[in-house]
Write a structure and sequence with these properties.
The complex is a heterodimer of chains A (193) and B (298).
Chain A lengths: L16 H13 L1 H5 L9 H5 L10 H10 L2 H5 L12 H5 L6 H14 L5 H13 L7 H9 L13 H13 L2 H5 L1 E2 L4 E2 L4
Helix pairs in contact in A: 1-7, 8-10
Chain B lengths: L1 E6 L3 H4 L2 H13 L2 E5 L9 H7 L1 H16 L5 E3 L2 H15 L2 H12 L11 E3 H9 L1 H7 L8 E5 L8 H4 L9 H8 L3 E2 L15 H4 L1 H18 L3 E4 L2 H18 L7 E3 H8 L17 H9 L3
Parallel strand pairs in B: 1-2, 1-3, 3-4, 5-6, 5-7, 7-8
Helix pairs in contact in B: 2-14, 3-4, 4-5, 4-6, 7-8, 8-10, 12-13
Classes of the chains: A mainly alpha (193), B alpha/beta (298).
């Protein structure tokens, strides 16, 4: 259902999209946070404040309009959804109290569930599965740490294997391994060497 | 003596350890001790992991808080990202019993419990509130008079302000006040509160977009005549330091603007050397700034 079609028929729209959004984020943020999207009056304060929209095609206002109307595929399948840096400027300034950044994060969760997770993001997630860190240590910084009088490894999951196992267990219990496609046998992402 | 549990996160221990050693050594002079949180992990990065799966993000953040709470101290972070995740997780879990029970059910399987009775603080609060600007002013041995600093607050410490409650997110002042306490001048520049570009998973997925943010900020700082940028966030710090090297490589544009965490600036003001501050390990040399500091009296 491309949005670029000249005629959009009401039947093409997913009228239950807002309810899906509410259901997806309700347990974390509470229903009111998600329903706040219904208060959007399309004033564009979000897009006008957005440092990403100055240089990309990302339009917060458009995402909220499409969400309200039920353009589910267009919202969840769009690369633009991933151009928000979560700087919260729009969240602070929205005159209608739309919880913009929370809604964007829930929409992204829904996109990930539909299989729209970038390989680069699967990689970032895989570092946490393997090391407990999104940005793990490297040899150069280990040397720098020793020069600065610190232990070669910080007292994090890098130094405590049982702590790393706890982190891995938590991620298994939340089902993050399935969402990302992480294979415990090979300790790598599925579909990658 | 005051004690805090220090939450290290990823970027400080694994990329900029000089920020850790500098902060720890200065705090010792004010009788503040930092206790390690053994076995802590990635916070996990607020805009990145919460965008993938909110429940996993929250469970890992709750585990980090839970093991921090076991020290019996309040928890201090040095990165806005870590602060953002831990403070938001604390806020969500303390405000929702059902959610807290659900997350604790998961944590119980690994022998942890989120209680929610430790405060989550940022290193900037330890300096501006526990120590205070006046004491920092008196602490300076080599005040940085004549140095023009451009501050960068970053996003996740201030915003959302209804949760973080650190005053105005549009016109914050505390970092500028700390900078002025070192004797340096804090100068304004265009779009001072704009994001560095690092967050929300944009850096991993669309590095050109991220670097375009960074480049815009760097240009604005150079135009205003800044001698260096001073930040309070490990992620922004990496973005400005490593980002400059990447911009040079990809776009052939060179800024050579020194990047300092606010404790590194205070360190310069008490005569700590650039090696001790970890500045020699950074991508962008601090020589231009040090030359200016050393050449002022001539």
């Amino acid at each position: 259902m491309p949005v670029t079609k000249n005629i959009i028929r009401i039947n093409d729209l997913n009228s239950g999209f807002i309810e899906e959004l509410v259901e997806s984020g309700r347990k974390i943020f509470g229903e009111d946070v998600l329903r706040s999207v219904e208060a959007c009056i399309q004033c564009g304060c979000c897009t006008g404040s957005c440092p990403s929209s100055r240089r990309t095609a990302f339009r917060t206002r458009k995402i909220f309009r499409e969400t309200s109307l039920g353009f589910k595929e267009s919202v969840l399948g769009s690369d633009d959804l991933w151009l928000c840096t979560t700087c919260y400027t729009c969240y602070e300034r929205c005159p209608r109290g739309v919880k913009t950044t929370d809604i964007i994060r829930v929409l992204r969760n829904m996109a990930v569930r539909q299989g729209y997770m970038a390989e680069a993001h699967r990689m970032t997630a895989s570092y946490v599965f393997k090391t407990g860190h999104g940005v793990p240590i490297n040899e150069e910084v280990q040397r720098q740490r020793v020069e600065l009088g610190l232990n070669r490894l910080p007292p994090t999951t890098h130094s405590f294997p049982e702590a790393l196992r706890s982190v891995q267990e938590v991620l298994r219990l939340t089902g993050f391994d399935e969402i990302v496609g992480f294979d415990w046998e090979t300790m790598e992402l599925r579909g990658r060497k | 003596m005051k004690e805090y549990a220090i939450f290290l996160g990823c970027i400080i221990p694994n990329r900029y350890p000089g920020i850790e050693t500098t902060s720890t050594s200065i705090l010792k002079d004010f009788d503040i001790e930092l206790l390690p949180i053994n076995g802590a992990s990635c916070c996990p990065a607020p805009g990145v992991f919460s965008s993938f799966h909110l429940e996993s993000w929250l469970a890992i953040a709750a585990r980090n808080i839970a093991i921090g709470e076991e020290t019996g101290r309040d928890i201090v972070t040095m990165c806005n990202g870590c602060y953002g995740s831990l403070a938001e997780a604390n806020h969500l879990l303390n405000g929702n019993k059902e959610l807290k029970d659900k997350i604790n059910d998961i944590l119980s399987k690994v022998g942890c419990e989120f209680k929610g009775n430790s405060k989550i603080k940022h290193m900037i609060e330890v300096f501006s509130e526990d120590i205070g600007v006046k004491k920092i002013q008196e602490y300076m041995k080599n005040p940085l008079d004549g140095i023009k600093v451009c501050t960068h607050y970053g996003c996740h410490f201030l915003k959302p302000s209804e949760i973080k409650k650190h005053g105005s997110s549009e016109r914050p002042k505390f970092l500028d006040e700390l900078v002025r306490a070192t004797g340096a001048e804090s100068i304004d520049y265009k779009d001072k509160t704009m994001c560095c570009g690092f967050g929300g998973g944009v850096r991993a997925r669309d590095i050109d977009v991220t670097l375009d943010f960074t480049r815009e900020k760097l240009k604005n700082i150079i135009s205003a005549g800044g001698d260096c940028i001073v930040d309070q966030c490990a992620s922004c710090h990496l973005e400005f330091d490593r980002g400059q090297a990447e911009i040079k490589k990809i776009y052939g544009e060179e800024f050579r603007l020194p990047v300092l965490y606010f404790t590194q600036l205070i360190g310069l003001g008490i005569g700590m050397g650039q090696k001790e501050l970890g500045l020699t390990f950074q991508n962008i040399p601090a020589e231009s700034l040090l030359d200016k500091i050393n050449g002022r009296k001539k």
